[in-house]
Amino acid sequence: MKKLGSQTLKFDNPITILETASIVGPKESQGPLASYFDKCLEDEFWQEKTWEKAESKIIKETVNSNITKAKIAASDVDYCFAGDLLNQCISSSFGLRELGIPLYGIFGACSTFVEGLQLGSIFIDGGAADKCICAASSHFCSAEKQFRFPLELGNQRPPSSQWTVTGSGSAILSKSGDGPYVTCITTGKVVDMGIKDANNMGAAMAPAALDTLITHFKDTGRNPSYYDVILTGDLGHIGKEILSEMSLTKGYNIKSNYNDCGVLIFDKATQDTHSGGSGCACCATVFSGYVFNKLKQKELNKVLLIATGALTNSTTAQQGESIPGIAHAIAIETSI
């Protein structure tokens, strides 16, 4: 492993993404990527009594499905890195308590999935593990109740708001395999531009995405054309436009090969999701379903995945604090 520049690590022996799995809720099942997910739910409860219990079930079944698809046993996995949006990451800890794999509960808000992929890759490269599983989940109903307003109130959602994705994505990393490979990672810094509007997360997170994107290019010496696609996690339509414009001011034109998971997962014209998708599961499901499929089919060969997170909670919002953002990047390539 080599450190490039200030924030990037390059793996001399790239890490294989062995297999992925994804489960999504009913709204996501009606979106343009539905055929790429392993399971599409018919309702938000999935036979559970609460939304929180449903979310725990979703991440549990996603991880179990991932292990089954990889044709390995749970005992073959050395560590699990998982997180979500609920207080103290209860979806992950409750959902995975019977898994029997050593668990690192992690939190990076909507950047959690890529944070897990980074940490798992470092563990494998450093010799601490042969296989790691990385997962993240979110649920529209549980997130709205915790971060904004209970659904029963029927509050108006402004056009800048995003729809938290109901679902979970999971990926198994391995020391050996035929790829696609994690070749390098760029860990983000906390960036806070003073935005306080919880209904405009894209604007709050875009500066962090810009900081990580520019740092990645400078550290690696690469430019936007190196990648088939640059994909942010949860900026939505507004945040995507902001990042595109800000990148130009830094001398990087990403418009021709840039997209966002929150833009891809819903049909803005027919699904009334305003600025698009968000949540830990947004990046996790789009990558584990759609993007991984394209990589395996060699329709995509070089992907820069930048997951973005808004590091806020209900307490800081009530105290009038701003919304700090963070973004973690991972380069995935089909050949080394």
Please tag this protein with its features.
single chain; 336 residues; alpha/beta; Peroxisomal Thiolase, Chain A, domain 1; 2 domains; 11 helices; 14 strands; 34% helix
Would you write up a description of this structure?
- The protein has 336 residues and is an alpha/beta fold.
- The protein folds into two domains: 2-174, 3-Layer(aba) Sandwich (Peroxisomal Thiolase, Chain A, domain 1); 182-333, Peroxisomal Thiolase, Chain A, domain 1, CATH 3.40.47.40.
- The chain has eleven helices and 14 strands.
- The strands form two sheets. Strands 1, 2, 3, 4, 5, 6, 8, 9, 10, 11, 13 and 14 form a twelve-stranded mixed β-sheet that branches. A two-stranded parallel ribbon has the order 7-12.
- Strand 4 (79-83), helix 3 and strand 5 (103-105) form a beta-alpha-beta unit.
- Helix 6 crosses helix 7 (236-249).
- The longest helix is centred in the middle third of the chain and has 20 residues, at 201-220.
- The two termini are 15 Å apart.
- The model has no long low-confidence stretch (mean pLDDT 95).
Overall mean pLDDT score? Answer: 95
State the oligomer: single chain
* SSE topology string: EEHEHEHEHEHEEEHEHEHHEHEHE
Structural class: alpha/beta
Instruction: Report the sheet-strand fraction.
Output: 15-25%
Counting DSSP E segments of at least 2 residues, the number of strands comes to 14
Rg calculated over all Cα atoms: 18 Å
Instruction: Tally the helices.
Output: 11
Assign the CATH topology of the largest domain: Peroxisomal Thiolase, Chain A, domain 1
What is the share of helical residues? 25-40%
Top-tier CATH class of the largest domain: Alpha Beta
Note the gap between the termini. 15 Å
Give me the CATH superfamily of the largest domain.
Answer: Stage V sporulation protein AD
Return the domain count.
2
Model regions low in confidence, pLDDT < 50 over at least 5 residues:
none
- Second CATH tier, the architecture of the largest domain: 3-Layer(aba) Sandwich
